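re: ur question from the group chat, yeah i did fold both. here u go
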Amino acid sequence: MTADGFWADRNYWAPEIHYYKGSFYAFVSFKSEDRCRGTQILISDSPTGPFRIHSDGPLTPSDWECLDGTLYVDDQGQAYMVFCHEWVQVKDGEIVT
């Protein structure tokens, strides 16, 4: 079951939960019939939820099939999302930020 107006309706895949700056962030891959698979971020005060929408839609490019977003924080504390540009579009797949 999804929140009213949530863009995805299938392929709820590969959730990862990360604790960052006092909150729990879920990086989850979603898809719908009319949109490419993408990774969206959800947030919660607890690792068991409930989670609410954090990002305004997927953070991955809208015309790419993407999955497996994860959090990476560099030595200077800068946060990045690393994800896979799926093989269905780029033969072997690509890891990108």
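okk and heres the other one u asked abt
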Amino acid sequence: MATTSDIRNGLCIRYNHDIYKITEFLHVKPGKGPAFVRTKMKSVTSGKVLDNTFSAGHKIEDVRVETHKFQYLYNDGEFYHFMNEEDYTQIRLTENALDMPQLMKEGEVVTILINTEDNMPLSVEMPASVVLEVTHTEPGVKGNTATNATKPATLETGAIVNVPLFINEGDKVKIETDKGTYKERVKE
């Protein structure tokens, strides 16, 4: 058993007969009244996001997990297929187990959390950022740079991200996976 002081991003807990992964948390100590922890949790079975507040010192049941490196192989429409980099075994997961499936390209190495009790995969953690090529975007209008102007760009995985006007087709861009936003242009 853990307490609210053990809450951190990525922690898997058992709550309301389901397993949730903590995606955001904030310890709040108001001037008046007891301290509490405000959390945003994502169900690893249904993908539903839940906002919850735990009072300080509240007991939570954490789930023991192991992390393994897997390589993303392909998507067959219903399942996403991954291969373990150590023993080459393959697993398949549904889309709701993934946070940003539209940013994964084939060959990407991800971390998969596996429940130690029943060896079931719980969730997929992407790297902090990925580098993808822009396959389609409209040309930027010259002189329209007085503000932080952006335009939509389609990436090689099919995801659409807003990028600055100077980005052209064929450019490689770094995308933050937690928000799905443009970070910077990558030069070869």
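fwiw on the second one: The radius of gyration is 20 Å. The longest strand covers residues 18-28. idk if thats what u expected
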